[in-house]
Specification:
This protein is an alpha/beta fold and 219 residues long. It contains nine helices and five strands, in the order ααααβαβαβαβαβα. The structure holds cobalamin (B12).
Length: 219
Protein backbone atom coordinates (compact mmCIF):
# COMPACT_ATOMS: atom_id res chain seq x y z
CA UNK A 1 0.00 0.00 0.00
CA UNK A 2 1.33 3.46 -0.87
CA UNK A 3 2.09 5.94 1.93
CA UNK A 4 -0.65 8.23 0.62
CA UNK A 5 -3.27 5.49 0.94
CA UNK A 6 -2.01 4.48 4.40
CA UNK A 7 -2.38 8.13 5.48
CA UNK A 8 -5.98 8.33 4.21
CA UNK A 9 -6.83 5.05 5.93
CA UNK A 10 -5.38 6.30 9.19
CA UNK A 11 -7.31 9.61 9.13
CA UNK A 12 -10.57 7.75 8.41
CA UNK A 13 -10.00 5.27 11.25
CA UNK A 14 -9.37 8.25 13.55
CA UNK A 15 -12.49 9.99 12.26
CA UNK A 16 -10.62 13.11 11.16
CA UNK A 17 -12.76 14.08 8.19
CA UNK A 18 -11.02 17.29 7.12
CA UNK A 19 -7.62 15.62 7.17
CA UNK A 20 -9.00 12.57 5.33
CA UNK A 21 -10.49 14.78 2.60
CA UNK A 22 -7.27 16.82 2.25
CA UNK A 23 -5.12 13.65 2.09
CA UNK A 24 -7.44 12.19 -0.57
CA UNK A 25 -7.23 15.35 -2.70
CA UNK A 26 -3.44 15.31 -2.38
CA UNK A 27 -3.25 11.61 -3.33
CA UNK A 28 -5.43 12.18 -6.40
CA UNK A 29 -3.23 15.11 -7.43
CA UNK A 30 -0.21 12.81 -7.14
CA UNK A 31 -1.93 10.35 -9.49
CA UNK A 32 -2.76 7.63 -6.95
CA UNK A 33 -5.36 5.19 -8.36
CA UNK A 34 -8.84 6.18 -7.05
CA UNK A 35 -9.97 2.53 -7.00
CA UNK A 36 -7.07 1.70 -4.70
CA UNK A 37 -7.94 4.65 -2.44
CA UNK A 38 -11.48 3.29 -2.17
CA UNK A 39 -10.50 -0.33 -1.57
CA UNK A 40 -7.25 -0.16 0.37
CA UNK A 41 -7.93 3.18 2.06
CA UNK A 42 -11.62 3.67 2.82
CA UNK A 43 -13.10 0.17 2.81
CA UNK A 44 -10.04 -1.22 4.62
CA UNK A 45 -10.41 1.56 7.22
CA UNK A 46 -14.00 0.50 7.90
CA UNK A 47 -12.85 -3.11 8.44
CA UNK A 48 -10.33 -1.94 11.02
CA UNK A 49 -13.01 0.17 12.71
CA UNK A 50 -15.33 -2.86 12.80
CA UNK A 51 -12.57 -4.99 14.36
CA UNK A 52 -11.80 -2.32 16.95
CA UNK A 53 -15.50 -2.07 17.79
CA UNK A 54 -15.75 -5.86 18.15
CA UNK A 55 -12.70 -6.01 20.40
CA UNK A 56 -13.99 -3.21 22.64
CA UNK A 57 -11.23 -0.78 21.71
CA UNK A 58 -13.74 1.49 19.92
CA UNK A 59 -17.26 2.42 21.01
CA UNK A 60 -20.18 3.71 18.95
CA UNK A 61 -19.03 7.38 18.85
CA UNK A 62 -15.68 6.39 17.31
CA UNK A 63 -17.46 4.19 14.76
CA UNK A 64 -19.73 7.17 13.95
CA UNK A 65 -16.96 9.69 13.39
CA UNK A 66 -15.03 7.21 11.22
CA UNK A 67 -18.18 6.60 9.16
CA UNK A 68 -18.65 10.36 8.78
CA UNK A 69 -15.08 10.78 7.60
CA UNK A 70 -15.61 8.07 4.98
CA UNK A 71 -18.88 9.66 3.88
CA UNK A 72 -17.08 12.99 3.34
CA UNK A 73 -14.29 11.40 1.28
CA UNK A 74 -16.53 9.40 -1.10
CA UNK A 75 -17.83 12.46 -3.05
CA UNK A 76 -14.21 13.60 -3.54
CA UNK A 77 -13.42 10.25 -5.16
CA UNK A 78 -16.65 9.91 -7.11
CA UNK A 79 -15.74 11.91 -10.25
CA UNK A 80 -12.50 9.94 -10.51
CA UNK A 81 -14.17 6.56 -10.09
CA UNK A 82 -17.19 6.72 -12.33
CA UNK A 83 -17.95 8.28 -15.68
CA UNK A 84 -21.06 10.16 -16.69
CA UNK A 85 -22.86 7.38 -18.54
CA UNK A 86 -26.45 8.09 -19.62
CA UNK A 87 -28.98 5.91 -17.76
CA UNK A 88 -29.68 3.49 -20.58
CA UNK A 89 -28.95 0.07 -19.18
CA UNK A 90 -31.96 -0.31 -16.92
CA UNK A 91 -33.69 0.72 -13.74
CA UNK A 92 -32.74 -0.39 -10.24
CA UNK A 93 -34.65 -0.12 -6.98
CA UNK A 94 -32.13 -0.12 -4.13
CA UNK A 95 -32.39 -0.03 -0.35
CA UNK A 96 -31.01 -1.13 2.99
CA UNK A 97 -33.42 -3.58 4.59
CA UNK A 98 -35.74 -3.05 7.54
CA UNK A 99 -34.09 -2.37 10.89
CA UNK A 100 -30.73 -1.55 9.31
CA UNK A 101 -29.38 2.00 9.04
CA UNK A 102 -26.00 1.26 7.45
CA UNK A 103 -25.86 3.05 4.11
CA UNK A 104 -22.21 3.69 3.20
CA UNK A 105 -21.92 0.48 1.14
CA UNK A 106 -25.35 0.98 -0.43
CA UNK A 107 -24.41 4.51 -1.46
CA UNK A 108 -21.23 3.23 -3.12
CA UNK A 109 -23.28 0.61 -4.99
CA UNK A 110 -25.60 3.39 -6.14
CA UNK A 111 -22.69 5.55 -7.28
CA UNK A 112 -21.10 2.72 -9.28
CA UNK A 113 -24.43 1.74 -10.86
CA UNK A 114 -25.16 5.33 -11.91
CA UNK A 115 -21.66 5.56 -13.36
CA UNK A 116 -22.35 2.30 -15.20
CA UNK A 117 -25.47 3.67 -16.91
CA UNK A 118 -28.29 2.57 -14.60
CA UNK A 119 -31.14 4.70 -13.28
CA UNK A 120 -31.25 4.12 -9.52
CA UNK A 121 -34.30 4.66 -7.33
CA UNK A 122 -32.76 4.75 -3.86
CA UNK A 123 -35.29 3.98 -1.12
CA UNK A 124 -32.75 4.74 1.60
CA UNK A 125 -32.43 2.76 4.82
CA UNK A 126 -34.85 0.75 6.99
CA UNK A 127 -36.82 -0.33 3.94
CA UNK A 128 -39.64 -2.79 4.61
CA UNK A 129 -40.88 -5.47 2.19
CA UNK A 130 -44.01 -3.37 1.58
CA UNK A 131 -41.90 -0.36 0.63
CA UNK A 132 -39.95 -2.46 -1.90
CA UNK A 133 -43.23 -3.77 -3.34
CA UNK A 134 -44.74 -0.30 -3.64
CA UNK A 135 -41.60 0.94 -5.43
CA UNK A 136 -41.62 -2.01 -7.86
CA UNK A 137 -45.26 -1.33 -8.76
CA UNK A 138 -44.52 2.37 -9.29
CA UNK A 139 -41.12 2.17 -11.00
CA UNK A 140 -41.20 -1.17 -12.88
CA UNK A 141 -37.44 -1.75 -12.41
CA UNK A 142 -35.37 -4.60 -13.88
CA UNK A 143 -33.47 -5.03 -10.62
CA UNK A 144 -34.23 -4.94 -6.90
CA UNK A 145 -31.06 -4.67 -4.83
CA UNK A 146 -30.95 -5.05 -1.06
CA UNK A 147 -28.16 -4.24 1.35
CA UNK A 148 -27.73 -5.48 4.95
CA UNK A 149 -24.83 -5.08 7.39
CA UNK A 150 -26.24 -6.79 10.46
CA UNK A 151 -26.70 -10.55 10.68
CA UNK A 152 -30.14 -10.08 12.25
CA UNK A 153 -31.42 -7.72 9.52
CA UNK A 154 -30.39 -10.09 6.71
CA UNK A 155 -33.68 -11.88 7.35
CA UNK A 156 -35.42 -8.79 5.92
CA UNK A 157 -34.12 -9.94 2.53
CA UNK A 158 -35.77 -13.32 2.87
CA UNK A 159 -39.02 -11.64 3.96
CA UNK A 160 -38.90 -9.24 1.01
CA UNK A 161 -38.34 -12.05 -1.52
CA UNK A 162 -41.21 -14.04 0.01
CA UNK A 163 -43.43 -10.93 -0.17
CA UNK A 164 -42.50 -10.44 -3.83
CA UNK A 165 -43.57 -14.03 -4.54
CA UNK A 166 -46.84 -13.47 -2.73
CA UNK A 167 -47.53 -10.25 -4.63
CA UNK A 168 -46.87 -12.01 -7.96
CA UNK A 169 -43.92 -9.71 -8.68
CA UNK A 170 -40.97 -12.06 -8.20
CA UNK A 171 -40.55 -13.03 -11.87
CA UNK A 172 -40.66 -9.38 -13.04
CA UNK A 173 -37.35 -8.47 -11.36
CA UNK A 174 -33.85 -9.78 -10.75
CA UNK A 175 -33.00 -9.66 -7.06
CA UNK A 176 -29.44 -8.94 -5.93
CA UNK A 177 -28.19 -8.89 -2.35
CA UNK A 178 -25.01 -7.66 -0.67
CA UNK A 179 -23.38 -6.29 2.45
CA UNK A 180 -20.54 -7.53 4.65
CA UNK A 181 -22.33 -10.48 6.36
CA UNK A 182 -23.83 -11.85 3.13
CA UNK A 183 -22.57 -14.94 1.28
CA UNK A 184 -23.35 -16.71 -1.99
CA UNK A 185 -24.77 -19.55 0.08
CA UNK A 186 -27.22 -17.31 1.96
CA UNK A 187 -28.25 -15.56 -1.25
CA UNK A 188 -29.04 -18.91 -2.88
CA UNK A 189 -30.88 -20.12 0.22
CA UNK A 190 -33.28 -17.14 0.27
CA UNK A 191 -33.87 -17.32 -3.50
CA UNK A 192 -31.97 -14.20 -4.62
CA UNK A 193 -30.69 -14.14 -8.22
CA UNK A 194 -27.24 -12.98 -7.24
CA UNK A 195 -24.86 -11.84 -4.54
CA UNK A 196 -21.85 -9.62 -5.14
CA UNK A 197 -19.00 -8.99 -2.80
CA UNK A 198 -18.50 -5.37 -3.80
CA UNK A 199 -20.02 -2.53 -5.78
CA UNK A 200 -17.86 -3.11 -8.85
CA UNK A 201 -18.89 -6.79 -9.00
CA UNK A 202 -22.53 -5.73 -8.57
CA UNK A 203 -22.40 -3.59 -11.72
CA UNK A 204 -20.72 -6.48 -13.59
CA UNK A 205 -23.44 -8.90 -12.45
CA UNK A 206 -26.21 -6.50 -13.57
CA UNK A 207 -24.46 -5.98 -16.91
CA UNK A 208 -24.22 -9.72 -17.53
CA UNK A 209 -27.95 -10.12 -16.86
CA UNK A 210 -28.93 -7.16 -19.06
CA UNK A 211 -26.71 -8.43 -21.89
CA UNK A 212 -28.11 -11.94 -21.74
CA UNK A 213 -31.73 -10.64 -21.60
CA UNK A 214 -31.03 -8.45 -24.65
CA UNK A 215 -29.41 -11.35 -26.54
CA UNK A 216 -32.40 -13.51 -25.62
CA UNK A 217 -34.86 -10.83 -26.88
CA UNK A 218 -32.93 -10.40 -30.13
CA UNK A 219 -33.01 -14.10 -30.88
C1 LIG B 1 -19.72 2.39 9.79
C2 LIG B 1 -20.46 1.42 10.67
C3 LIG B 1 -21.56 1.91 11.38
C4 LIG B 1 -22.08 3.34 11.23
C5 LIG B 1 -23.01 3.37 9.98
C6 LIG B 1 -22.98 4.71 9.26
C7 LIG B 1 -23.71 4.65 7.94
N1 LIG B 1 -24.24 5.79 7.54
O1 LIG B 1 -23.79 3.62 7.29
C8 LIG B 1 -22.85 3.54 12.57
C9 LIG B 1 -21.86 4.06 13.58
C10 LIG B 1 -24.07 4.46 12.52
C11 LIG B 1 -23.19 2.09 12.90
C12 LIG B 1 -24.23 1.72 13.71
C13 LIG B 1 -24.43 0.41 14.15
N2 LIG B 1 -23.66 -0.66 13.92
CO1 LIG B 1 -22.29 -0.63 12.59
N3 LIG B 1 -20.69 -0.80 11.53
C14 LIG B 1 -20.07 0.06 10.77
C15 LIG B 1 -18.81 -0.60 10.18
C16 LIG B 1 -17.60 -0.17 11.02
C17 LIG B 1 -18.50 -0.33 8.73
C18 LIG B 1 -19.65 -0.57 7.73
C19 LIG B 1 -19.28 0.06 6.41
O2 LIG B 1 -19.73 1.16 6.09
N4 LIG B 1 -18.36 -0.58 5.66
C20 LIG B 1 -17.80 -0.03 4.42
C21 LIG B 1 -18.72 -0.36 3.23
C22 LIG B 1 -18.15 0.23 1.96
O3 LIG B 1 -18.74 -1.76 3.12
P1 LIG B 1 -20.11 -2.59 2.95
O4 LIG B 1 -21.22 -1.88 3.61
O5 LIG B 1 -19.84 -3.99 3.28
O6 LIG B 1 -20.41 -2.44 1.38
C23 LIG B 1 -19.66 -3.03 0.34
C24 LIG B 1 -20.08 -4.47 -0.01
O7 LIG B 1 -20.56 -5.20 1.09
C25 LIG B 1 -21.06 -4.31 -1.13
N5 LIG B 1 -22.49 -4.09 -0.85
C26 LIG B 1 -23.08 -3.40 0.13
N6 LIG B 1 -24.40 -3.37 -0.05
C27 LIG B 1 -24.67 -4.06 -1.16
C28 LIG B 1 -25.87 -4.35 -1.79
C29 LIG B 1 -25.87 -5.13 -2.95
C30 LIG B 1 -27.15 -5.45 -3.62
C31 LIG B 1 -24.65 -5.63 -3.46
C32 LIG B 1 -24.66 -6.51 -4.64
C33 LIG B 1 -23.44 -5.33 -2.84
C34 LIG B 1 -23.45 -4.54 -1.69
O8 LIG B 1 -20.57 -3.19 -1.82
C35 LIG B 1 -20.04 -2.23 -0.90
C36 LIG B 1 -18.89 -1.48 -1.55
O9 LIG B 1 -17.99 -2.33 -2.19
C37 LIG B 1 -19.15 -2.11 10.37
C38 LIG B 1 -17.97 -3.08 10.42
C39 LIG B 1 -17.77 -3.88 9.15
N7 LIG B 1 -16.65 -4.54 9.07
O10 LIG B 1 -18.60 -3.94 8.28
C40 LIG B 1 -20.01 -2.08 11.63
C41 LIG B 1 -21.03 -3.18 11.89
C42 LIG B 1 -21.75 -3.57 10.62
N8 LIG B 1 -22.02 -2.52 12.86
C43 LIG B 1 -22.40 -3.29 13.74
C44 LIG B 1 -23.31 -2.92 14.77
C45 LIG B 1 -23.55 -3.95 15.85
C46 LIG B 1 -23.94 -1.68 14.76
C47 LIG B 1 -25.00 -1.18 15.78
C48 LIG B 1 -26.08 -2.20 16.16
C49 LIG B 1 -24.24 -0.66 17.01
C50 LIG B 1 -25.11 -0.19 18.17
N9 LIG B 1 -24.85 -0.79 19.30
O11 LIG B 1 -25.96 0.63 18.03
C51 LIG B 1 -25.57 0.04 15.03
C52 LIG B 1 -26.74 -0.42 14.12
C53 LIG B 1 -27.76 0.58 13.87
C54 LIG B 1 -28.75 0.01 12.85
N10 LIG B 1 -29.91 -0.42 13.31
O12 LIG B 1 -28.45 -0.07 11.69
C55 LIG B 1 -21.81 -4.69 13.63
C56 LIG B 1 -22.80 -5.74 13.10
C57 LIG B 1 -22.59 -7.06 13.84
C58 LIG B 1 -23.41 -8.18 13.29
N11 LIG B 1 -22.80 -9.32 13.22
O13 LIG B 1 -24.53 -8.09 12.96
C59 LIG B 1 -20.55 -4.43 12.73
C60 LIG B 1 -20.12 -5.64 11.87
C61 LIG B 1 -19.40 -4.02 13.71
C62 LIG B 1 -18.90 -5.17 14.55
N12 LIG B 1 -17.76 -5.74 14.21
O14 LIG B 1 -19.53 -5.58 15.50
N13 LIG B 1 -22.36 1.25 12.32
Amino acid sequence: MSDAIATIKDWVIRGRKNEAVAATRAALDEGVDPGAIMKDGLIAAMSVVGEKYSSGEFFLPQMMVAARAMTEVVPVLKPHLVGEAAATRGKVVLGTVQGDFHDIGKNIVRMMLEGGGYEVVDLGVDVTADMFIEAIRKEAPQFVLMSALITLTMEGMRRTIAALEEAGLRSSVRVGVGGAPLTHKYAAEIGADFYSEDAYECVQACNRMVDSARAEAGR
